[in-house]
Amino acid sequence: xxxxxxxxxxxxxxxxxxxxxxxxxxxxxxxxxxxxxxxxxxxxxxxxxxxxxxxxxxxxxxxxxxxxxxxxxxxxxxxxxxxxxxxxxxxxxxxxxxxxxxxxxxxxxxxxxxxxxxxxxxxxxxxxxxxxxxxxxxxxxxxxxxxxxxxxxxxxx
Length: 157
Fold this sequence. Notes:
By secondary structure, the protein is an alpha+beta fold.
């Protein structure tokens, strides 16, 4: 297997994973629509955070025990074995049980806009662009086929 073959294989796996992730997001939204979304009982903006530096880089720390939001966050962390993800942040409970850390994971998401959808559409070859629809939702751009795409559309270009 050549380096080029390996790169193509890796790109195919990443495309598959992106599709799988999009399906999971859509299914989660459908389940929330059917069963109702569980509203978080805490707001991270209602908690006092201090900037810290750790061995793995910068993070935020809080010991705001007087805040109801902090108390509810600690309850959620205890229910999740001390770790959880929410709105792009990874939260963890320190062993003391009275200190919480958080770190932004990945890049902060910008709201989806029609301009972003147009920019995404331009990345596709013109023939594929014609058989795909690009739709903006709150924080995502949804790409849907208008017809069966067929394997010929995914051959080396």
